[in-house]
Design a protein that fits this description.
With 809 residues, the chain is of the alpha+beta class. The protein has 28 helices and 33 strands. The chain binds one RNA strand of 86 nucleotides through α7, β11, β15, α11 and β29.
RNA sequence: GCGGACGUGGCGGAACGGCAGACGCGCCAGGCUUAGGACCUGGUGGGGGCGACCCCGUGGAGGUUCGAGUCCUCCCGUCCGCACCA
């Protein structure tokens, strides 16, 4: 028989699959389809880390199993190839990002092949390939024509270290998500996508998705819808009267207002500043401008502000209300102005305390003792209104509505919904990305590049070191263009697009990767999409996943797609931690390299181990010692199959047959539920029984190999061949199970007395309640436990237990 | 601060509200072997008993239930998001 030489066998089957196009997929409307997708990787110079194969193995198992069940499965792979790391590396080494990226892709492809994944490589895509980004540019123009891409000067997040602007989503704790450099604000002319137009739809669409609840919540919070009222406070100066609207979700607290605060960037600040306060106010504004967001919004910061020396008129009481400016109010949210209600808002309370502003309670809980009400702190709960004129005595919920209605009646208020979500800033002042297809003409202004001129090629010969100016602006050849409208000399847009634009539509391209006339062909997208199973890291909860949903909705609205949610089912693999339980990182020296693992134990073992480690979605530490268990498992499969083949047994023992049917059921269901660990465990249990009691025949063997095949494809192919099959095991049918055989024939029934297990007995599976009760009462142990006490009640769960409740006397 | 996930042997982890610890690692004993490794068999939560068995056990404290690792309330701890959003 010989030992199982995984090195020779695995490479041989990988070659076989390539040569036979085993995993090539074509559209076939007569067959049911399944689109199983991994988030395509950024091909980094470090190669695969052990986290990649976790998700890839899961989707591979599902894909292989479903193919065997007769589904037409689309399972592609590609490269999110544009991006900063390659560019930064290229700058450091004085080489070109294109070369680096190619090299990295080669390495990734080698590693994925080594792990035996069943991708249809004929569909491979690369976002940095002009054949791809041509369509990224096409889609930019599509959005532009629909009024969803626009340019504006705006304060934007700037990372001085990366020398580029960042999307809100790429700023973490006031720092750049790439390099952790502190992010500052800069006023720049930038391109945006109008994501905010889709805020409500992005929110509503979440309901129907089979996604982790946590991810849905993160998207909900990110969109941050809040309903309230815009309330007008009137101001007046020498030039006449004007409105200062504030946004609040608590109109019921309107009579508790003791001041109004404007953000430092609010346009009315200057107008409302009294002459004798001007110097101090301007000093404050200057200071606020130089603060970073981190300094300004960090929670630990004490709130600061200055009074403007003027007042506004309260819309309902008519009383004058002093105006302040303070940088705890954000210019970018709501109206950039808030009403200060220190009695019922914690932020306002601390601000009022610090500056000695009055605190006026207008809502009290019905039972102050129960609610822990005290005037020594803000009360933010519900209650009954007082000191609020005609609204006194109302509950706060009703008051919200009544006060809002009163304001609307006298045109001093408007019901309004606000969102945290901002429009998506897509301009990047960097080289390694898709150029934005726009030219600027002195005569005709901003002009989209005509479709037939796409792609706008990224020039190779550019000094791409970042200076804050876009590197493309320094390429004369690139920068100089002719106006598509008038033919005069014009300037080309020199910024590139955020790489998240590339990845917002790649799943559509996979359906027709060689389509030359459009980004994707209708029939292909209609057949394959939406993605049925999508697997990838939770770090994309609000970036990629939100943008891809936005793109899909836009394309759907304009007739290019017949669906508006791209990913029906989403799962996030749990983080694989280092052996010490900490995050893997080079600096901690606890990184495990997949190449080493495959070299030592083989691809099948690597796959099996990662699936066996624990719950797919939980974080779990790597344990090199634990891998050997999976190696042993496969070695035992190898020897057991050989033994069984040589025995030439024709019948299987009934016990083993029943276990086999249970295992088929378990493995089939567990794969669909992402419970790969217990599926593997079931395969181990069956093998243990098979070797322990013997009695396996060739039929069992055939079924067993097919169950194992999605997990350990190389070994399964090799043994499939051994038992006499000519073609790939993946052309075989997935095994079926017989429900009656899968059911236990005989069950162990537990007998409890007052909640404690006192005995257990075997009974045929279908035994009725009376019989179970009778047998339970007969038990000596039960009698002993009863000690003559009276039986008050007997609960029977058929096939499981008899629970006797008895008095203790 | 808010939101979410989680807490089970020496370790990774299993358990439709119904036998806690499946499966794997590790460890112990035995077999095979010149020896070691590999492999095979058995054992392995804690405590007690010669033993059949008994008691205690799922972060802590309560509760619901015939029955709680699982459901509810509070507390402690770990991890992950968001964070002055008015």
């Amino acid at each position: 028989m010989g030992r199982y030489d995984f090195k020779e066998v695995e490479v041989r089957w990988q070659d076989y699959w390539d040569e036979n196009d085993t995993y090539a997929t074509t559209e076939d409307p007569s067959r049911k389809k399944l689109y199983v997708l991994d988030m395509f990787p950024y091909p980094s110079g470090d190669g695969l880390h052990v986290g990649h194969p976790e998700g890839y193995t899961a989707t591979d198992i599902i894909s292989r199993k479903r193919r065997m069940e007769g589904w037409n499965v689309l399972h592609p792979m590609g490269w999110d190839a544009f991006g900063l790391p390659a560019e930064n590396f290229a700058i450091k080494r004085g080489v070109h990002p294109k070369g680096i990226t190619r090299q990295n892709i080669r390495n990734f492809r080698r590693q994925l092949r080594m792990l035996g994944f069943s991708y249809d490589w004929s569909r491979e895509i690369d976002t940095s390939d002009p054949a791809y980004y041509r369509w990224t540019q096409w889609l930019f123009l599509f959005l532009y024509r629909k009024g969803l891409a626009y340019k504006k000067k705006a304060p934007v997040n700037w990372c001085e270290s990366c020398r580029t602007v960042l999307a809100n989503e790429q700023v973490l704790d006031g720092r750049c998500e790439r390099c952790s450099h502190e992010v500052t604000q800069k006023d720049l002319e930038q391109w945006f996508f109008r994501v905010t137009d889709y805020a409500d739809r992005l929110l509503e669409g979440l309901d129907g998705l089979d996604w982790p609840e946590r991810i849905k919540l993160m998207q909900q919070n990110w969109i941050g819808r809040s309903e309230g009222v815009e309330i007008v406070f009137r101001g007046e100066d020498a030039d006449g009267g004007f409105d200062v609207p504030v946004f609040t979700t608590r109109p019921d607290t309107l009579f508790g207002v003791t001041y109004v605060v404007l953000a430092p960037e609010h346009p009315a600040v200057s107008r409302l500043t009294a002459a004798d306060r001007r110097e101090e106010v301007e000093g404050y504004l200057r200071a606020a401008r130089t603060k970073t967001d981190l300094q300004r919004t960090g929670l630990e910061q004490e709130k600061t502000g200055v009074p403007l020396g003027s007042t506004l008129v309260h819309p309902l009481s008519g009383e004058p209300v002093p105006v302040w400016t303070a940088d705890y109010v954000l210019g970018s949210y709501g109206t950039g102005a808030v009403m200060g209600v220190p009695a019922h808002d914690e932020r306002d309370y601390s601000f009022a305390q610090r500056y000695g502003l009055p605190i006026s309670f207008v809502i009290r809980p019905e039972d102050e003792a129960v609610a822990g009400f005290t005037e020594g702190a803000a009360y933010t709960g519900a209650g009954i209104l007082s000191g609020s004129g005609e609204f006194d005595g109302l509950g706060s919920e009703e008051a919200k509505d009544r006060i809002a209605a009163a304001l609307v009646d006298c045109s001093l208020g408007e019901r309004k919904t606000n969102y945290h979500l901002r429009d998506w800033l897509i301009s990047r002042q960097r080289y390694w990305g898709a150029p934005i297809p726009i030219v600027y003409c002195d005569r005709c202004g901003e002009q989209p590049v005509p479709e037939e001129q796409l792609p706008v090629l990224l020039p190779d010969d550019v000094d791409f070191r970042p200076t804050g100016e876009s590197p493309l602006a320094r390429s004369e050849d690139f920068h100089r263009a002719t106006c598509p409208e008038c033919g005069q000399a014009a300037r080309r847009e020199s910024d590139t697009m955020d790489t998240f634009v590339d990845s917002s539509w790649y799943f559509l391209r996979f359906t027709s990767p060689h389509e030359g006339e459009r980004p994707f062909s209708d029939h292909a997208v209609n057949y394959w999409c939406p993605v049925d199973v999508y697997v990838g890291g939770a770090e994309h909860a609000v970036l990629h996943l939100l943008y891809a949903r936005f793109f899909t909705k836009v394309l759907c609205d304009h007739g290019l797609l017949p669906f508006e949610e791209p990913f029906l089912r989403l799962r996030n693999p749990g983080l694989i931690l280092g052996e010490n339980g900490e995050k893997m990182s080079k600096s901690k020296g606890n990184v495990i390299n997949p190449d080493d693992v495959v070299d030592r134990y083989g691809a099948d073992v690597m796959r099996l181990y990662e699936m066996f480690m624990g719950d797919f979605e939980d974080a779990k530490p790597w344990d090199t010692r634990g891998i050997v268990g999976l190696r042993r498992f496969l070695d035992r499969v190898w020897t057991t199959v050989h033994d069984t083949v040589h025995e030439r047994r024709e019948t299987v023992s009934p016990e083993l047959e029943r276990l086999l049917h249970r295992t088929v059921k378990k493995v089939t269901e567990d794969i669909e539920d992402f419970k790969f660990n217990t599926a593997i465990s079931a395969l181990m249990i069956l093998l243990n029984e098979w070797t322990r009691v013997g009695g396996g025949d060739r039929g069992l063997l055939s079924v067993y190999l097919r169950l194992l095949a999605p997990f350990a494809p190389h070994l399964a192919e090799e043994l499939w061949r051994l038992i006499g099959h000519e073609s790939s095991i993946f052309q075989a049918d997935w095994p079926a199970w017989d429900e009656t055989l899968a059911a236990e024939e005989e069950v162990e029934v537990v007998v409890q007395v007052n909640g404690k297990v006192r005995d257990r007995f075997l009974a045929p599976a279908g035994t009725d309640e009376d019989e179970l009760k009778r047998r339970a009462r007969e038990s000596d142990k039960v009698k002993n436990a009863l000690q003559g006490g009276k039986i008050k009640k007997v609960i029977v769960v058929r096939g499981r237990l008899v629970s006797i409740v008895a008095s203790r006397d």
